[in-house]
Amino acid sequence: MACGAMLGGMAPRVAEPIKVGHYGSMTGSEATFGQSTDKGIRLAIEEINAKGGINGRPIELITYDTKGDSGEAGKAVTRLISSDKVVAVLGEVASSLSIAGGAVCQQYGVPMITPSSTNPRVTMGKDYVFRVCFTDDFQAFALAKFVKENLKLDKAGILYDQKQAYSKGLRDEFTKAFKKMGGSIVIDQAYSGGDQDFSAQLSAIAAAAPDVLLVPGYYTDGAAIAIQARKKGIKVPLLGGDGWDSEQLGKIAGDAIVGSYYSNHSAPDQPDMKDFVDKYQKKYGQMPDALGGLGYDAANLLADALRKAASLGGKDVRDVLAGTSGFPGVTGSITIDKNRNASKAAVIVQMAKTEKGDVQPKYVASVAPDAAGEKK
Ligand code: PHE
User: Fold this and answer.
1) Residue nearest to atom 8 of ligand 1 (CA)
2) Ligand 1 centroid to residue 197 C-alpha, Å
3) Which residues in 146-158 are b (16+ Cβ under 10 Å) and which e?
C-alpha cells in the first residue's frame, strides 16, 4: 500500500515550533558564561519538548554570540526579534550586555528574562525585562556580612573593573554595606576589563595592607589578578562576586586562588541541586556552574508563561511573567516582585584543591534573602 499517496493532502500537520532567542557570550573572555547558560537552556527545552512542548508545539531555540560585547548584544537581540521573530528572549549574563539587549526588547515589546544579570539597572524602568536571580545590593550585603561575621575582618581593599556596570555596582554596594557594618575600605583601585598588567594597582594595595581584597570582576581578569597579587606578596584572601563563576577561574589561577571566596547563586555540592547536577552531567559530561542552573530555570519559567498566556503576544506573556510566585527552580524558588526581580539566597563558596589536584569551589555558607531586611 502506498502510504504516501494515501496520506496525500491530509498528512498529519507538524506543529509549528515556537521560536525563543538566546543571546550570550559563546566566545571571548567570558565564553563560559554564554556556553553554560546555553547548555542549561537546551537541557530545559529538550525536557519541555519531550513532554509535548507548549500546548503541542515544540520550542525552537536560536542562539547568537555576543562575544562579550554590548554592541554585539544589541545587534543580536534586534536580529532575533526582527528577522527570526522570536516570542521571547533569554540572556545575557553580563549586566552591561543585558542593559543593551533589554533596551531593544523593551522597544519592541518582547519579553526578556535574564537568568543571571544582577545589576539593578537591568530591569529598572523596563516593564518587559525580568530576572530570575538576586540583585547586587543583596549580593554585596551577603559578601559584607560574610567578611564581618564569618571571617571577622574589618579592613577591605577593592580592585574593580570600571568598564562593567556589574563590577562598579558591586563595588559601590559593597562599600556602602561594609561601612554600615563598621568595616572600612582602606584602598579602592580600578582597572579596565582585559588589562594585562595590574602591578600599579597591586603595589598600592600591598602598601595599604587590607585584610581582604574584593575583586568584583569577571573570571578571566579575576584569575590574572590573583596570580599577580600573589607575586606582589599579597597573601590575604581575595573575594569575588558571581562573576568569578567559571571552571576557568581555578584552571587559570591554580594555587593563587586557593582559599579565596566568592558569592554565587548556587553551589554544585549543595544537596538540593543533586537531581539537576546529575542530569546536566549525564548530558554534557561536566559539572554545571551556577549559570547552567539559572539558564535552566529561566527557560522553564518562560515555558510555563507561554503555556499560561492568553496568546504568544509580548504583552500577554509579559503579564503572566509579572505574576510569577513561588515557581520551583533548581536554583531556588522564584517570585517576581514589582520591579521584575527575584529575591533568592546567596551562597558563599571557597576555592579549594580537590584530591585530583583541581581547584574548585566548595560550599561554605548561605545568606537568606530576608537577612538584608534590616538594612532596607
Ligand atoms: N551577575 C553577573 C553580572 O550581572 C553575571 C554572572 C552571573 C556571572 C552568574 C557569573 C555567574 O554581570
Assistant:
1) 243
2) 23
3) bbbeeeebbbbbb
pLDDT of residue 270: 83
**From CA 347, how far away is CA 292, in angstroms rounded?**
16
Q: Say which CATH topology domain 136-264+346-375 has.
A: Rossmann fold (3.40.50)
Confidence at residue 271, expressed as pLDDT on a 0 to 100 scale: 82
- Tell me, rounded to whole angstroms, the distance of Cα 29 from its chain centroid: 15
Q: Are 375 and 176 in contact (CB under 8 A)?
A: no
Domain range annotation of the chain: 18-134+272-343, 136-264+346-375
Location of C-alpha cell 530576608: 370
Taking the C-alpha atoms of residue 174 and residue 179, their distance in angstroms, rounded to an integer, is: 8
Mean pLDDT by 10 residues, the chain (376 residues): 48 84 98 98 98 97 98 98 98 98 98 98 98 98 98 98 98 98 98 97 98 98 98 98 98 98 92 93 96 98 98 98 97 97 96 96 92 58
From CA 260, how far away is CA 189, in angstroms rounded?
A: 19
Cell of 78: 534586534
Can you give the pLDDT at residue 371? 79
| String of DSSP letters for 4-23 | HHHHGGGPPPPPPPEEEEEE
Instruction: Name the CATH architecture for the domain at 18-134+272-343.
Output: 3-Layer(aba) Sandwich (3.40)
Report CA(11)–ligand 1 centroid distance (Å): 47
Q: Specify whether the CB–CB gap between 273 and 281 falls below 8 A.
A: no
Which atom of ligand 1 sits closest to the CA of residue 118?
4
Amino acid at 94: A
Which residues form ligand 1's pocket by a CB distance below 6 Å?
33, 93-95, 116-119, 166, 242-243, 245, 290-291
Task: Report the sign of the C-alpha dihedral through residues 60, 307, 134, 97, in that order.
Answer: positive
Supply the pTM of this predicted model.
Answer: 0.95
